[in-house]
Amino acid sequence: MKFPFRRALFSASALSLIAAPDAVVAQQSNAPEDDRSTANDLLTDTIIVTASKTDLVQADNQSPPEQIAIPADAAGIAARTPGGALVQNGALSGQLSYRGLFGERVLGRINGQRFASGGPNAMDPPLHYAPSILIDRIEITRGTAPVSQGPSLSAAVNAKLVGTRFSDTGELAANAYAAGQYRSVDNSYAIGGQIGIATPRWRLGVIGSREEGEDYDYAGGTAVGTSFERQLYGIEGGFRAGEGEFFVEYRRSETDPTGNPPFALDIVYFDTDFLQAGFRGQLTDDLHLDLRMGHVAVRHLMDNQTTRQPAAPAMRARATFADADTNTAEVALRFGSDRRNVTVGGDVEMVDKDVTITNPTNAAFFLEAQPNLSSERFGGFVQWRGGIGAAELELGARLDRTSQTAGVPQLGTAVPMGPSMLAAAFAASGREQSDTTVDVVARAWVPMGEIVPRVTLSRRTRVPSLLERFAWLPTEASHGLADGNIYVGNQALEPEVAYTLEAGADFNGEVFTFRPTAYYRRVNDFIQGKPFDATVGVLDTPVEMVANMNGDPTPLTFRNVDAEFYGVDLDFTVRPTARILIDGTMNYVRGMRRDIDDDLYRVPPLNGRISIAYEGDRIAIGGELTGAADQNAVSVSNDEDTSEGYVIAGLFAQFRLSDEVKLEAGVENIFDTFYQPHLAGRNRVQASDVPLGERLPGYGRGVWIRASANF
Fold first, then answer.
1. Does residue 659 contact residue 1 with C-beta atoms inside 8 Å?
2. What is the enclosing helix (H) or strand (E) of 470?
3. What is the pTM of this model?
4. 118, 334, 361, 686: least surrounded by Cβ within 10 Å?
C-alpha cells in the first residue's frame, strides 16, 4: 500500500492531494454522511483531523496537523488555516482570528449547529465544545461565508465530530474510532472515541472523550493557572428514507475547573447540553431538503477562588453564574442539481441569557450584570448557483430581522450605591432595540485546468451583541478581548456593515500547488472600545466612579467607528520527488481605523509555517518551522503594546501499523524558544512565573505521542 501520510500530515491544502488522488481513498471518514453541497466546496478549507475521505474535485482542504501535538483547544487547529491566527485565552477558551476578525464576527458551529456562548467573556467560544481528539474535520469558508450559512461578518467555521456511518455491506455492521494522546509540556492526556452499529437503513452510535492537563511549561518557567479538565459524551442516530436521512443527536459537555489567566475569573464549570434533529437529502431528483431544529443549554460558573492562585480575599471574592439558552430552526429547499440550482430558505435563532455576579462569602452581595437578556432573529435567503460560459457563479442575498431586549437588574442589599445608581438608570432606559440587515454575496470562479481564478464580492452585516448593547455594569466582560480594560455597553450601537473584495487563484500542478488570495474589507460602524467620555481619567460620571472602584479609572464603552482591513494569505506545496513533500502557509493582514489615524486592536502580525517530510511506505518523518514577525502596527488609542517576532521548530514522525492503526510522535519547540504570540491574553495570576500583565508565552519544549485506530 502506498503510504497516505500526505493526505493528513501537512497544513496547506488538498491541492497536493488533487495531484495524487490515490492518497484519499485509503480510509473512509469516521463521520456520518452529511449535507455538504458541492456548490460551496470550492471555496471551503477543510482541516481533516482524522484520516477522511473528501471530494477533492471540488473541495479545498487543509490537511490535519499530524505534525504537532493536537491541542485540547480546537481553535489552535482551526488557526492553521490560511488567514488564521489563534487568540490564546486559556487552555480551552481560544478563538479563531480570521483575516483580522474574531469573536462573533466569525460564525462558529458544531456539527452544523449554531448557538450562543454562555460566558460573558467568551470562555466558551463555539470550538470550546469540540474536543480535538473527537474532531473529524473543521470546515472553514475561504473568505466571506455564503448567505445560506447564516449571518456573519466574515468566515464560517464548522467542526464536525466523529460519528457512526451507515453500513455499506448490506447487513448489520459495527464501526469504531479510538484515539489517545499524551503531551509532556503540560503533562496532559486526551482519550476519546466512537462506536456504533448500523445497517444500510439505520445507524446508532455513542461518542465520548476525557481530557486533563496541568499547568504548562514555557522556556523559563511555568504558566500557573492553566490546568484544564473536560469530558464529553453523547448519542446519535439516523434513519434513511429514500434518498434522505432523518437524524438526531444529543451531547453533554462538562468542563471542570480550568484556569484562564487572561481573565479575572477562572472556569469552575460549564455544563452544556446539545440537542438537534432534522432531515437532509433528496425528496425528488431535483428537490433537496435540509431541515434542522436545535436546542443548546449552557450552565456556567466562574470564580477567583477554586483555581486562582492565590485566591482573592473575602472582600473581593467573586462567583459569577451565567446561563444561555439557544433555540434554532433552519430550513432550505434546493431546486435543481448540485451545480445548477436555486436554494430558498429561512432560519430562526432565539437566545436568552442571564449573568449574576455574587460574593460567595456574603449572600447579600449580588448583581444581575446581564438581566434576562433576549435576542430573537428571523431570517430568509435565496441563493442561485449557475454559470455563464466557462465561469461558475454563486449569487445570494439574505434579510434578517433581529430584536433584542433586557430586563431590570436585581441587586443585593450589600451592593454599594454606585452600582445601584447605574442599575436604576439602566432600568429607566429603553432596554430594547431592533435591526433589519441585508447581506449580499457574489462568488465566481473559472475552472481552467490547472488554474482556477476566483473572485468574491460581498456586503455582510453583524448586529451588536447583547453584551455590547446591554452591559450596564462596568466590568472586564468583553467577549474574549481579555485585555484588562473595563467595558460598558451602548444601546445606541448600529450594526456593522462590511464590504469585501477578495480575489485569488488556485494553481494545481503535479509538482507544485499555490493558492494566493488578496482581499480588502471596508467596515462601516465597526464596534470597538473607546473612552467613555472626552475627559479621560477625570471621575465625573457614575460609570467612571464604579469603574475606578473596580480598578480602572478609564473605562471604555463600545462605540461605532470606521475601519478597513487588507491583506494576503496563501498556502503552497512542492513535491520535488515522490517521497518528499514541502508545504507552507503565509498570512498578512493590516487593520486600520478610517475615522482617525490609528491601527486596529489585536491584529496578528505577518506569520507563516513551512514543513518538510520524507514519506516511506509505512513510516514518515519530518520537521516544521512556525514563525511570526514583529508587530509594530498597534492601536495607540487602546494602549496596545508591540510584540517581538519568533521562530520555533518541531519534529514529527508517524508509523502506520496497518491501514486502520497508526502511531505518531514528535518534539515541539525543540530549541525551547521563548516567545509571546501577539494575540495571547495577558496574565492575571500572581503565583505564576509569568509576570502580571505580560502576554502569556507559548509552550516550551516537550514530547508527545499519539495512537489512533479507525475501523
1. yes
2. helix 466-470
3. 0.92
4. 686
3-state secondary structure (DSSP) of residue 590: strand
211-265 confidence digits (pLDDT tens): 999 999 999 999 999 999 999 999 999 999 989 999 999 999 999 999 999 999 9
Answer yes or no: are the C-beta atoms of 70 and 707 closer than 8 Å: no
Q: Cα-flanking dihedrals φ and ψ of residue 616, to 5°?
A: -90, -170
**What's the CA gap between 471 and 604, in Å, rounded?**
27
- Do you find a cis peptide bond into 516, omega within 30 degrees of 0? no
Look-up of cell digits 500583565: 693
Question: For residue 188, what pLDDT is reported?
Answer: 97
* Residue 198 to residue 113: CA distance in whole angstroms: 24
Residue by residue, DSSP assigns 77-139 as HHTTSTTEEEE--STT--EEEETTB-GGGSEEEETTEE---SSTT-SS-GGGGS-GGGEEEEE
Rounded distance between C-alpha atoms, residue 238 and residue 64, angstroms: 27
User: 676 Cβ partners below 8 Å, 6+ apart?
Assistant: 643, 644, 646, 694, 695, 696, 697, 698
Alpha-carbon span 500 to 519, nearest angstrom: 7
Question: How many other C-beta atoms lie within 10 A of the C-beta of residue 692?
Answer: 12
pLDDT reported for residue 41: 52
pLDDT of residue 16: 31
- Better pLDDT: 532 or 268: 268
Query: How does pLDDT run across 94-130, given as a tens digit for each residue?
Result: 999 999 999 999 999 999 999 999 988 899 999 999 9
Better-predicted residue by pLDDT, 580 or 47:
580
Report which residue type is found at 324: A
